[in-house]
Structure formats: C-alpha cells, structure tokens
C-alpha cells in the first residue's frame, strides 16, 4: 500500500484530540469558498457526512450564520474502531454580508456534502445609466 508522507498530519490529529469535538457553544470552523458568479454571490461550505436536517442557516440584518453538526454513526456492538480521523460535533461559520446583497432571496442547495448558498446582488448595487440634462437636451453616461 502506498502512503503519502505528511509531516503535519499527526500534529493536526493531536490538536483536534486536545481541543475535542466542536460543541454548539464552541463550534469548530468549516472550510468554505466564496465568489461572485454573474449577478449572484456564491458561498460553498464543505460539510461531508452531515445530513441536511443537521444544518441551520440564519440571516440577521447582514450577518449570515451557518451551523451544522456531524453526529456519530450508529455502530453494531461487535465493531472495533481502528482509526477515527473524521471530526464529529458542531461546526459554524459567520459571514458579514455587504449591504449590496439581497438577503431576502438567498437560495440554499445541499448536494454531495457541499452546502451552496446563492445570494443575489441587489438591484441598487448593479451598474445603471444616468442621464445628464444639458439645457433642453439629455445625454446618457454609461456607469
């Protein structure tokens, strides 16, 4: 069997053991990507092994909070765990959203362990043309 050497793997594992699993009062961080795609702001969170009903998404003013909990899988009595590296417990991430995003129309999808939130850019934040009045004529300037 081929094994890749990672000098920090044991250090990461030890740190996780010392800190223990995340709890609702002290959750662990969850990895995410954030990017703009057309007229939407997209945020994707990695939540492998988390069921959709264990995810909680809240928006209060411009603060987006995502919480999730990875629960232990029920095991038979005769199972002896040899290695356990997948963290269990609570995970959370808070993001301050710009006022230019439309938080009333956020769409959430969960597929293959990835939670994807699509937040539309508010109409007031999109570029628009403004006409300038010169005497009796108006001239348009692209913005």
Task: Provide a quick synopsis of the model.
This protein is mainly beta and 143 residues long.
Low-confidence stretches: none
Question: Which geometry do the CA atoms define?
Answer: elongated
Strand % is 35-45%
Share of helix, binned = under 10%
Order of neighbouring strands in the sheet with most strands: 1-6-5-4
Distance between the termini: 60 Å
Q: Return the structural class.
A: mainly beta
By DSSP (H or I, 4+ residues per run), the number of helices equals 1
Mean pLDDT: 80
- Major beta-sheet overview: 4 strands, mixed
Number of strands: 10
Task: Give the C-alpha Rg.
Answer: 23 Å
The secondary-structure element order is: HEEEEEEEEEE
Structural overview:
- The chain is mainly beta.
- The chain is built from one helix and ten strands; from the N terminus they run αββββββββββ.
- It has one helix spanning 9-19; strands spanning 28-29, 32-37, 40-46, 55-60, 63-70, 89-96, 107-111, 114-120, 130-134, 137-141.
- A four-stranded mixed beta sheet has the order 1-6-5-4, with no helix packed on it.
Layout of helices and strands, plus pairs?
Layout: H1 9-19, E1 28-29, E2 32-37, E3 40-46, E4 55-60, E5 63-70, E6 89-96, E7 107-111, E8 114-120, E9 130-134, E10 137-141
Parallel strand pairs: 1-6
Antiparallel strand pairs: 2-3, 3-8, 4-5, 5-6, 7-8, 9-10
